[in-house]
Amino acid sequence: MRFLVISVSAGDGHNAIGRALIEELNKRGHTTLMIDYHKGVSPLRQWFNNDWYFWVLSNCPGFSHRTYERLKRRDTNKKPPRLSAYNFMFNSPKSIKLVEKTLADFKPDVVFSTHSYPAALMSKWKKEGRINCQCFYLVSDYVIHLYTELTTNNDYILTPCSDFHSTLEKLGYDKKQFLNIGIPVQTKFSTISDKKALRLKFGLNPELFTVLCLSGGAGYGRIDLIVKNLLTVQRPLQIIVVNGRNEKMKQKIDNYLAKKKINSVLNLAYCNNIDELMGASDLMLGKLGGVGVTEAFNKELPLISVGQAPFQEYDNGLYLSEKKAIIKIDKVEEIPEVLTDLFDHPEKITALKA
Predict the structure, then answer these.
(1) Which of 349, 343, 298 minimizes the C-alpha distance to 326?
(2) Which of 148, 206, 222, 312 could covalently link to 199 via disulfide, CB atoms 3.0 to 4.6 Å apart?
(3) Structurally, how many domains does the chain consist of?
(4) What sections of the chain are H helices per DSSP?
(5) Between vectors from CA 222 to CA 270 and to CA 233, what angle results, nearest 5°?
(6) Helix 61-72 × helix 311-322 angle, to 10°
(7) pLDDT at 203 over 90
(8) Both 288 and 154 in a single domain?
């Protein structure tokens, strides 16, 4: 069979789901192709969806959160305004032409959409009878995304858990469309590694408790403040920091470590071996994107969320903390107290792995 995956570069999560799907389908001998809805064909929308989006999250968190909460309260029975940001991103003429051409040339039997933009387009075309391939929409977070009501004509929606099915029904989905499979991640995140061997590989102390700090592919947020507070914990530990594509933040932390003559921190830029870094760690402090969270869960790596997460990550945090799947703390200043408590009560760390 021929499978087309349509993703959107908004951070790395949606693309990571696409890579996981391609990996598994290729193993099964299928013909696959993955395209990006905006990247390479609509530079302005790509900038808006990635660079501008993460700049706003980093520099205007209060505004971002209020905007998100207001959008959640909108009337889902009404179409988005013609001049709305969503319509600007969704109705990209060049992106639509790319999808049209790919469908005509590749002739897929199945289309997977890892973001609501292509999922809404596939839903529209299914309703109009323009396509007859099967269409799947994959939910990439532990929350129902904004504008999911525009995707209901896809054949199936792949959900992270059944808790959201009643909400989906209210938005127009039918029960027969639900496939509760979780969030797909690459198989390398589903193997438990030898921690000591990996620590030696990265030049770390193989016997020391290791904390991994992740700021996502875009590297937004004040991860430097997290590191500084971790360094005040009066227990033996070492730290791995991944700054993503935020080169300024990496340099800032490098300068701080050099000034303070600290050698217990491995400070990294963007990495393609996050699975190994997770495998080397005992605890993770990181962002709450659905894919990254699922990767940590599969690695049996306990997770702490620090600060107010943006947009859907905020809802991920609420849902997962209610399920006692993560520890959620509001301020970086709470890190020393929480870490000390976990050190002194290791059974709490074990409980997070369950």
Answers:
(1) 349
(2) 206
(3) 2
(4) 13-27, 43-47, 53-59, 61-72, 85-90, 93-106, 116-128, 165-171, 195-201, 223-230, 247-260, 274-279, 290-298, 311-322, 335-344, 346-353
(5) 100
(6) 80
(7) yes
(8) no
Q: What angle do CA 309, 313, 316 make, to 5 degrees?
A: 120
- For 35-65, the pLDDT digits (tens) are 999 877 777 777 777 777 777 777 777 777 7
Instruction: Give the global pTM.
Output: 0.89
**Residues sharing a CB contact under 8 Å with residue 153, sequence separation 6 or more, in sequence order:** 122, 123, 124, 126, 127, 135
Residues 87, 113 within the same domain: yes
Together in a domain, 140 and 257: no
pLDDT at 216: 72
Percent pLDDT > 70 in the chain is 95
Q: How far apart are CA 156 and CA 134, in angstroms?
A: 8
Q: What's the mean pLDDT when you consider all of the chain?
A: 90
pLDDT tens column, 10-38: 778 899 999 999 999 999 999 999 999 98
Instruction: Give 335's contacts (C-beta < 8 A, 6+ positions apart).
Output: 226, 229, 230, 233, 285, 306, 329
